[in-house]
């Protein structure tokens, strides 16, 4: 009887202790959870790209090399390297990134015409109902051609182009050719804000050399990324 009572008392004590510790754990985890929610809110406000669908278009590819520099650097390879860097930044920033190509290939079909090729890129962006379209190119004119340019569709809001241009210039420190309207096919035919960036001149031997430098590629991507972030925060 005594043993039984002692056993019951011990059992009750254990039960009470158990309940107490369950309550404490619940409180503790509630506290932790609410702290997590605040952190999550802060995190989201610092992630302006969350829920944004951004199409990144590395210019040219496959049968179309794009411009070729004096030392045989091809535009299609440079644009893909920059686009991959940009994809990484945008994804980390919370955006959903759709690349028009992720390897050295034509986007439409192998050897497709220029217009089919451009339309294939436009179709990807329009069908995805993307929030932004960013086409990446390098400029070509002559050996003395120099600097950074960002194009937007004439008559459309120029904010995105201006922000991206300013941020690229502050990263790259090349001659600022400004943000300019242009009726490039991909700008005219996409249904969302769209820009076409020309980070530097592949036809200029000095800038051609920069364009194959991985640190320079990353700076281009950071400039575009910062401009896009500024556009969504404003
Ligand atoms: Zn190009």
Protein described:
This protein has 234 residues and is of the alpha/beta class. It folds into 2 domains: 1-46; 49-233, Zn-dependent exopeptidases (Aminopeptidase, 3-Layer(aba) Sandwich), CATH 3.40.630. It is built from 7 helices and 6 strands. A 6-stranded mixed beta sheet has the order 2-1-3-6-4-5, sandwiched between helices. The radius of gyration is 27 Å and the shape is globular. Mean pLDDT is 88; it is low at 14-18 and 20-32. Residues 59-60, 66, 75, 137 line the site of zinc ion.
Give me the strand/helix succession: HEHEHEEHEHEHH
Shape: globular
| CATH topological fold name of the largest domain | Aminopeptidase
Q: For the terminal residues, how far apart are their CA atoms? A: 78 Å
Helix content: 40-55%
Number of discrete helical segments: 7
Lateral strand order in the biggest sheet: 2-1-3-6-4-5
């Amino acid at each position: 009887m005594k043993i039984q009572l002692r056993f019951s008392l011990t059992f009750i004590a254990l039960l009470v202790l158990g309940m107490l510790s369950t309550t404490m754990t619940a409180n503790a985890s509630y506290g932790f959870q609410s702290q997590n929610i605040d952190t999550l809110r802060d995190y989201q406000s610092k992630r302006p790209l969350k829920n944004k669908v951004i199409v990144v278009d590395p210019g040219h590819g496959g049968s179309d090399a794009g411009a070729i520099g004096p030392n045989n650097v091809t535009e299609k390879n440079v644009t893909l390297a920059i686009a991959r860097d940009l994809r990484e930044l945008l994804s980390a920033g919370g955006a959903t990134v759709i690349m028009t190509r992720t390897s050295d290939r034509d986007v439409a079909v192998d050897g497709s015409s220029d217009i089919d090729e451009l339309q294939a890129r436009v179709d990807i962006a329009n069908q995805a109902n993307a929030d932004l379209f960013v086409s990446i190119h390098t400029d070509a004119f002559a050996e003395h051609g120099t600097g950074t340019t960002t194009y937007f569709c004439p008559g459309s809001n120029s904010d995105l182009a201006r922000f991206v241009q300013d941020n690229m210039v502050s990263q790259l420190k090349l001659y600022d050719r400004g943000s300019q309207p242009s009726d490039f096919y991909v700008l005219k035919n996409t249904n969302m804000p769209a820009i076409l960036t020309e980070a530097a001149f592949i036809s200029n031997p000095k800038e051609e050399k920069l364009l194959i430098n991985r640190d320079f590629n990353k700076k281009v991507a950071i400039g575009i990324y910062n401009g896009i972030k500024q556009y969504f925060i404003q």
